[in-house]
Amino acid sequence: MQRSTLVRGTAVTGAVAIALTLTSCAGSAAETAPTADMEIGSVDLSADCPATIVIQTDWNPEAEHGHLYEMIKDDYTIDANTKAVTGPLMSDGEFTGVNLELRAGGPAIGFQTVSAQMYQDDAITLGYISTDEAIQLSDTTPTKAVFAPLDISPTMVMWDPTTYPDVKSVDDVKAALSANGGVWRYFDGSAYIEYLKSAGLADASILDGSYDGTPSNFVAAGGKDMQQGFASAEPYVYQNEVSAWGKPVDFALIHDAGWQTYQSSVSVKAADFEELSPCLTKLVPVLQKAGVAYYADPSAANALILDLVDQYATGWTYTQGVADYSVKTQVDLGLVGNGTNSTYGDFDDDRFADFFDKASKVYTDLGTPPAAGYTPADLYTNEFVDTSISF
Predict the structure, then answer these.
(1) Which of 32, 46, 83, 192 is a Cys-bridge partner for 97, taking CB atoms 3.0 to 4.6 Å apart?
(2) CB of 263 closer than 8 Å to CB of 133
(3) How confident is the model over 86-120, as pLDDT tens digits?
(4) 177-204 tens-digit pLDDT
(5) How many CB atoms neighbour CB 300 within 10 A?
(6) pLDDT band at 10 (very low <50, low <70, confident <90, very high)
């Protein structure tokens, strides 16, 4: 399968998270950045930001990360050993005075959390941290989010529409599986499952935490079982690239069931926030513009993504078809967009507060509560977001 034996995990629970945090897999940055003796354009980051801004992603290169790769153009170097690409950081076609290094996550960092990797390697400036991870690990590896590239998480549950024609949402899943003797296969330790159980939307009788990232069990069940995935990838992959299945699947977003995490928020270590604030004031609008530009024309960034996947050779397969489907689906489903206002990349205060309450309860019940005294304001800020930048 495309994306075969490698599992893209969501935030994990309890001992799983602790074990991942303790894993020692710190990677090194590409040692020599490309020469960037170019004229600096209208945005100059050189006085306020590190000479090389290092961003740690949470998975192999893919279209959900396209807004980052949009900032690297022709003059770049690829380090296939460390799974990183480095080049002049560009904005609106102009050099910003610093370089950008983008690091792959997942297998490239031993599948540990991005927050753990950031605390092991001080060279990392920013990282992809989902809100649930930030809440759960706030006591051990605290981070603060400054930009939300995705408004809605792509995490979903999918099923065979022929077997389950009446299932339209997560609300319908429990009864349908119970009646048919099927299971919902998910990545063991996924925090959203604990929330669904607490909300009465799932229970042990229909849950199976044995999902390993491969299609074999889903295919073998012949439509009886359901499975987690990303709405911006798996529906295309299963219909077009898993020959043993080769037909459509239906799906429902976990977001719509009430677990409304911000996926892959660009974040800094909490202790670095004040020092990096002058940089972030200029950088976050650059990130916003890059996202708008990428979704308007993703061709160049996607070509780089496909080249990196090939050169990194982690066992992950990613095709042009998946990339094209992902971009279209992200836009069509509102996974990326302006959210509830007219600004791209900000956090909704009410939504964040509601999610903080839900996630705090889940993690407290699991024995990994948020840091004592923490509030949503400790976990994110909109202060650097340019409210005029939108889709």
Answers:
(1) 46
(2) no
(3) 999 999 999 999 999 999 999 999 999 999 999 99
(4) 999 999 999 998 888 999 999 999 999 9
(5) 16
(6) low
The answer to whether 284 and 384 are in contact (CB under 8 A) is yes
Same-domain status, 127 and 267:
yes
Specify whether 79 is located in the same domain as 117: yes
Do residues 146 and 267 share a domain?
Answer: yes
Q: Which two tokens stand for residue 300?
A: 């160049």
CA distance 193 to 254: 9
Count of domains for the chain: 2
pLDDT at 189: 83
Report how far apart, in Å, the C-alpha atoms of 1 and of each of 161, 218, 307, 319 are: 21, 12, 19, 12
Domain with 248 in it: 155-257
Closest CA to 147 of 340, 384, 373: 384
Query: Is 283 part of a structural domain of the chain?
Result: yes
Looking up tokens 């309450």, which residue turns up?
A: 357
Would you give the DSSP letter of residue 169?
A: S
Strands 226-230 and 184-185: parallel
Inform me whether the pLDDT recorded for 31 exceeds 60.
Answer: no
79 vs 254: CA distance, rounded Å? 36
Tokens of 78: 């690829």
Distance separating the N- and C-terminal Cα atoms of the chain: 34
Within 13 Å of residue 318, how many CA atoms lie on the same side as its CB?
27
Q: Could you tell me the two tokens for 298? A: 């993703």
**Residue 37: its pLDDT value, please?**
76
Tokens 């939108």, located at residue: 390
Alpha-carbon distance of 374 to 256, in angstroms, equals 26
Give the helix/strand (H/E) hosting 158: strand 155-159
Neighbour tally for 374: CB within 10 Å: 17
In a domain, 391, yes or no: no
Question: What's 235's domain CATH number?
Answer: 3.40.190.10
Domain final residue, candidates 230, 257, 284: 257
